[in-house]
Amino acid sequence: MDEVSLLALQNEITELEKVLTAKKRQVEELQSVNKEIVQNVTQKLLPEKQINNQSPPEEKIALFRSLFRGREDVYAKLMKLRFIFDFTVRQKAARNRG
Fold first, then answer.
1. Residue 82 to residues 77, 79, 90, Cα–Cα distance (Å)
2. Handedness of CA 35, 37, 39, 45 (dihedral sign)
3. Which of the 8 DSSP states describes residue 53?
4. Which of 23, 68, 75, 88 keeps 20 to 30 A from 60, CA to CA?
5. Tell me, what's the pLDDT at 75?
6. pTM beyond 0.90
């Protein structure tokens, strides 16, 4: 390799090291911002009062409802339908045997 090629490669390495340093700085900044966001979200999501097994049922239910929201006007009928279907099938099978 001639000197021109070596100088070009050294210059390229120097530029890449500068880019690497800048990217590392960006990663550190983003990590610190991420930590702040996680702390803010955690503070907002955690209940002010700690709930444990000694807490009254009303507080436990309130915590559960705050975590799992859904429609209160809808309920599942699948178990009821499955029970009726199984019962009907068993009844017919018993009739066929006897």
1. 9, 5, 12
2. negative
3. T
4. 75
5. 62
6. no
Dihedral angle, C-alpha 54, 60, 64, 66, nearest 10 °:
-120
Q: What is the amino acid identity at position 70?
A: G
Q: Alpha-carbon distance 7 to 1, whole Å?
A: 10
| pLDDT tens across the length of the chain (98 residues) | 688 899 999 999 999 999 999 999 999 999 999 999 888 887 777 666 788 889 899 988 888 877 777 776 766 555 555 556 666 666 666 777 75
Interatomic CA distance for residues 65 and 42, integer angstroms: 18
Block residue for tokens 């966001």: 37
Exposure of 52 in the CB half-sphere (CA atoms within 13 A): 2
Unique residue bearing structure tokens 């610190």: 32
Distance between CA atoms of 30 and 36, rounded to whole angstroms?
10
Tokens of residue 35, six digits: 């930590």
Measured over the CA atoms of residue 88, residue 93, residue 94 and residue 96, the dihedral's sign is positive
